[in-house]
Amino acid sequence: MIDMVSGNIFHCRKHSWPAEEYISRATLQLLDFDSAAPPRQAWRRRLNSHANILKEFSVTFMEALKMMRLGVRLWSYVREEASHGRRAPIDPFTRESCKPSASQGVPLGGMGSGSISRGFRGEFRHMQIIPGICETSPVMANQFSIFISRDGGNKKFSSVLAPGQQEGLGKLGDQGLSSWNWNLSGQHSTYHAVFPRVWTIYDDPELKVSCRQISPFIPHNYQDSSLPSAVFVYTLVNTGKERAKVSLLLTWANSIGGNSHLSGGHVNEPFRGEDGVSGVLLHHKTAKGNPPVTFAVAACETQNVNVTVSPCFGLNDQNDVTAKNIWDTMAQDGTFDHGNFNTGSSIPSLPGETHCAAVSASAWVEPHGKCTIAFSLAWSSPKVKFLKGNTYNRRYTKFYGTSERSAAHIVHDSLMNYKWWEEEIEKWQNPILNDDSLPDWYKFTLFNELYFLVAGGTVWIDGHSPARDNQSTLSQNGHNSRIEDPTKIKVTAATVHSKGNVVIEHETCNGYEDGDGNGDANGLNLDDENGDGGNTESHNPLQLSTLLDQKPDDNEDVGRFLYLEGVEYVMWCTYDVHFYASYALLALFPKIELGIQRDFAKAVLSEDRRKMKFLADGNCGIRKVKGAVPHDLGTHDPWHEMNAYNIHDTSKWKDLNPKFVLQVYRDFAATGDMSFAVDVWPAVCAAMEYMEQFDKDGDGLIENDGFPDQTYDTWTVHGISAYCGCLWLAALEAAAAMALRLGDKPFADKYKSQFLRAKSAFEEKLWNGSYFNYDSGSSSNSRSIQADQLAGQWYVASSGLPSLFDDHKIKSALQKIFDFNVMKVRGGRMGAVNGMYPNGRVDETCMQSREIWTGVTYGVAATMILSGMEEQAFTTAEGIFTSGWSEDGFGYWFQTPEGWTVDGHYRSLIYMRPLAIWSMQWALSLPKAILEAPTINMMDRTHGSFRGSDGGIVRKVAKKTKCFSNSVFHCAC
Q1: For residue 591, what are the contacts with CB-CB under 8 A and spacing of at least 6?
Q2: Are 163 and 121 spatial neighbours (Cβ–Cβ below 8 Å)?
Q3: Where do the record's region annotations for Disordered lie (predicted)?
């Protein structure tokens, strides 16, 4: 195997990267059938590209001094959690044994069933089968290999299809992986990615090989997108003069990463399935009482493709069949003994012993002939167990049952359905990929940032109840044949409250027991509404409407979804960050987004009086305050023990409640789902009324309390702040608009009036003539230019609401951010730094003020698009691509961090917030429901354009790329 022509495709400000710069035109033409050729708009790398070690951030001496007490308390907390066998949600002290490198690629599988990443050079790594645990090191036994024989066996070639640049390979006399041929240099092999698909091209002069990796990530498909599987389709084109026998080999270790393969008790079992699908099941016995896992590796036998297996081999000479044995057999014969299918299950592995399996698929390819060979990998871990909580069935069990052996059925269906998956993926992606008005870097980065919804530690469960044994049966084809009865909602108390044409009931019901049982009160239960309703005065926090008398039919129940803030910050659905990331879910899986919002709406009305210690100041408080939006849904007992974050008391944060109101209104406006609006309206009322305590002077505007009381949790705020104040103004507007849609005119009038007072105070105290000051205090950074100062304006513009400020003020502030936060940092090639002094120096008040946050940069770019500043928007966002994704950047592809410093030191890899790039696409193509939504008159209005006090008109953005169909946003969840 050799590689292709040289050339660097990633030159700054270059807007297209034709595949011909990596693959010869002749090879592309030969592969131009059956989707074997990569698209023109793909992220590309050569397999021999250097995977440099990434540089992690470090605090300065002064920052360390300021955080010393916090560090001591955090260290003590991390040790306390470890003594109970638990991982602290934030642990900066423990380092991974495998140092992060620029080696990531597109992950495998759908959402919420565990994930396995595959680096661009071919290694399988970053296994996250058990929720919250990520094993980063590659499992080197997991490989594809190729064996080629020509001229009656006189010409032979064999190699693992990954460059052999791993530590420990190449030992002489080894019976393990070093005995294999690692002949691929990677120079003429290239990787092309548009999530969720990958094309790896091996451009040999006499044999063109394309490996197409396909995962079932299909927007608006809530069944296949939950499947833990991937398909690898090899397309072979024989350009030589002789007939060639080509054998492909997939080897897999019975391991879930780390040292799990050595724990013992693992069993391998060959199987023959329907439609020629055959392979091996690898039954893995997990440690610490975690649910077991079964892998299925298989290939599809056809008239021209012969599939055989070696069901169990080891990695040293103490095994009956060694890695060297199976390699020698394949090199000699290109196939295994067909009798291996009849060997039955292996003896369970002993502690310290590794069990691996191999599946071979071989075919003859005539001169100038073509052949396709398809493999599939699936894994089944049907139950999710949380350390302090319940066990749940994963989403896919709704269709395949709860047996670990369902992996065999999943792998079969994957091989039967992958072509349809590809058709659906292309229907979704092609309108954007073929839009010549968009730069190529934006197109593939837009899709590739979605990797996080698979590799970001996602959990998707079936329904709302804990798992029960024997709750499903399988039909003969392995699909779930039962339709489970929906959980009954038992009404024990109800009050009826009429708002216009909407009749709302408040219900209380019995829920789950507290999973922890400690403390002086029970934990939260998001299926339990409290009868006292949150102590509101003019509005009962009402929970369910008579429109929801009966639960939607089972086809409409998409279960419950969790995703981590990041693999280093192990908290589920961190809400201040979800504010940025949620655009991706709303655009692609709106029912999941509405489900998350319902969970938080119920949480607003709940209280958990168990005590917890806040590490920033050492004080104690209750875990969850009624009326406050929780920071997260928990770590070890999600939905029941919330607020795993314990640095600050987030009940005093100023951004969470406004962000809840803004997201709820945006989602309601986009979907037009009235049942959702009625369901969450009581929580909106409670969240707004809760915030009134922070208006200290009665001007209608909330004040910050002199500590980092918002998502920038090391960046102190004094008095009125641009970030929280702008969010509050937007929340007042959104709450008033939603009240009008629901017929609650008194509520709408109250917050419209408060908006006008608050807006006047905000502009008077923060507007300095060109932008809004960081805060109204007198600290050294009070006049800093904050990149995120218009976060509230971003949301009202995304939701079809009137602009918060006059058009010239919005554009002036955005231009200031562009000129200073963007262009004064390495010429605009890094994104937008969070804080910048008006003299052009980076604000180094704290760690976060000097960082460039990837998701915030995308959000700023979206705000620019909504304000008619598209050139500045794409230049701003391109800095994230240049620094994070380009070949000349830092190497953060498929592991985009929370942020980096101007010298390229990252913080928190594989982070949720960069999904905010989908807010740019949202801005470019506002859904029809938002464009046609009823308007709210917060100020004077003329002909559908909202007119500010000075008469300036804020234009509405015209629709562009049609990536959202009109029917998408009319779901009833």
Answers
A1: 222, 556, 558, 971, 973
A2: yes
A3: 88-108, 509-541
Q: Write down the residue that tokens 């023990």 correspond to.
A: 641
Structure tokens at 394: 């994963």
Query: 512, 669, 541: which is closest to 601 by C-alpha?
Result: 541
Which helix (H) or strand (E) segment is 676 a member of?
Answer: helix 674-691
pLDDT in tens, 277-335: 999 999 999 988 889 999 999 999 999 999 999 999 999 888 889 999 999 999 999 99
- Partners of 767 in the β-ladder: 772
**3-state SS, residue 900:** strand
pLDDT for the residue numbered 701: 97
SS3 per residue for 97-152: CCCCECCCCCEECCCCECEEEECCCCCEEEEECCCCCCECCCCCCCEEEEEEEEHH
Residue 554 clears pLDDT 60, i.e. is over it = no
The DSSP call for residue 650 is G
- pTM of the shown model: 0.88
Whole-number Cα distances in Å, 276 to 294, 310, 362? 21, 17, 14
**Residue 16: its pLDDT value, please?**
53
Strand partners, 323: none
Task: Supply the Cα-derived Rg of the chain in whole angstroms.
Answer: 28
Whole-number Å distance between alpha carbons of 461 and 466: 9
In order, the DSSP letters of 899-918 are EE-TT--EESSSBSGGGGHH
Least confident of 86-95, 460-469, 690-699, 950-959: 950-959
Of residues 771, 692, 790, the one with CA closest to residue 732? 692
Q: List, in sequence order, the alpha helices (H) in 773-869.
A: 791-798, 807-816, 854-866
**Helix H segments across 182-254?**
none
Report the alpha-carbon distance of residue 175 to residue 731 in Å, rounded.
65
How do residues 224-283 score in pLDDT, each as one tens digit?
A: 999 999 999 999 999 999 999 999 999 999 999 988 998 999 999 999 999 999 999 999
End-to-end CA distance of the chain: 52
